[in-house]
Task: structure prediction
Amino acid sequence: MQFIPYLCLPKAAVVASEVLSSHKNSGSIGVGRRACWRESCVLIAILLLGAAHCDALTIADGGVHSIDYAVSENVNVYDTIDGLATTVNLVGGGMVASYLWTYDNTIFTLSGGLVGEHLEAYGNSHITISSGAIGSWMNVMGNSRVDISGGLIGSWIGARNNSWLTISGGMVGDGLSASYNSRVTISGGSVAGSLSAYNNSLVTISGGYVGDMVTVDDNGQVIVIGSDFNFDLGRIAETEGVLTGTLQNGDSINFSFHQYSANSSIVLIPEPTTLLLLGLGTSIAYNSRQNR
Result:
């Protein structure tokens, strides 16, 4: 593992823009080539200053690393130049103080450690969370995959851009948003706050706790698998209401919903046992008629 400079360009660029704007408003920067030169010098100086004060730990050697100590910098995880996947395990006693990003085909596991602020997955990276905590939010991007069976995400999860997210345990503190062809499966755990699906995303719920509001829009779909629903099976016709029932794993649901567009939907599907009983009942009725 090695330390390399990490350019915090977005933040520095904002500062540079504000400085240039203040100069223009005060009249200290004129027009013409001299003005452009002075503006460029100010911008470059601020960007370099921002880069000089922001470091990151980049791990990109194709090896397997366990972090059981405190890392005060941001962490970036990449494949090697030759495409060998790098694996990082954040275990009990380990902490990344701020941000952690995964790229390429890298593998990251969280099993007792702490990511102080944000966790983001890009490329084809694979993240597994079984315990530990993420202090704020998590983004699942690109073709990345995240499997959560335990632990805590302090704020929200955003799944987008063809990503895959499965939740079978653990807790999400402040909601989940699925968008842009993402696929989310919830079979356990707890998602507090709101849940939304839009832009061709699909969320399937068969267990766990879902917060107080579910919304769909712009070709988004939420499939709920269970029984004893207060609406008929199939697509819910009402644009808003309160859905109650029992999920496939036995958990109860009671949440408000809103379907904002005609091409979005919340669909109720019977659990396999119910389907089997329905099929058995149909078969018995058919044989009874045939024997008459």
